[in-house]
Amino acid sequence: MSKIRNIRIPDSDSESDSSDSETGLTSAAPDFDVFDREANPTKQPFDYYCVFDVEATCEENRKDWKNEVIEFPVVVIDSKTLQVVAEFQSYVRPVLNPTLTAFCTNLTGITQDVVDASPTFPQVLKNFESFMADNNLSHNNMRFVTDGPWDIRDFVRKQCNLSGIRPLPVYFKDYIDLRRLFKDIKRDTTVKANLNGMLSALGMEFVGRPHSGIDDTRNIARIALRLMEEGWIFE
Description:
By secondary structure, the chain is of the alpha/beta class. Helix content is 31%, strand content 18%.
């Protein structure tokens, strides 16, 4: 049986949606069909998979830019039914560089007025933990799924350090890197294992606005669901 393995984060610190603008909580499924046919799901080791793809502050040609998370979106997959059962989305107010660059706004579509009216990262994390409790999500019964290692390994870990959140919350300790493992699954060197490449290889097209965190996350969820439908085990 094929498996997709999770990645564990070390303990060391060295290393446009209709959600409530204040809490960022939503529970509605996306307004597109993930599948057009009924699924016969293979039993997965976790009840839920939280697909996750943040957006962060940035500047063109500035590798030294200190990125801060400005969009925190999660799409929750029920592995028993292969359905999207909940969503969480919140924009985040940056504090280190509170003014967004033109490059960042053009890339993400996130505007200054949106982040100015949003909670800071510690509050967003508290809101997300309330969302987890409301939806019976915990480190014991769920894992994050990301498009590459950067969202949790880099952006979230560094943001937690910047916000004085230590140690890293336990639910961030393990995640499944879908991009890296897609190559192992398909074993096709002609396929680019980026978001559009994975969608194309599965006969799908991107739905929504690229680099919108919630739209990226919904499309990553479509890929994860398709692989689950094919019988891959996410553990």
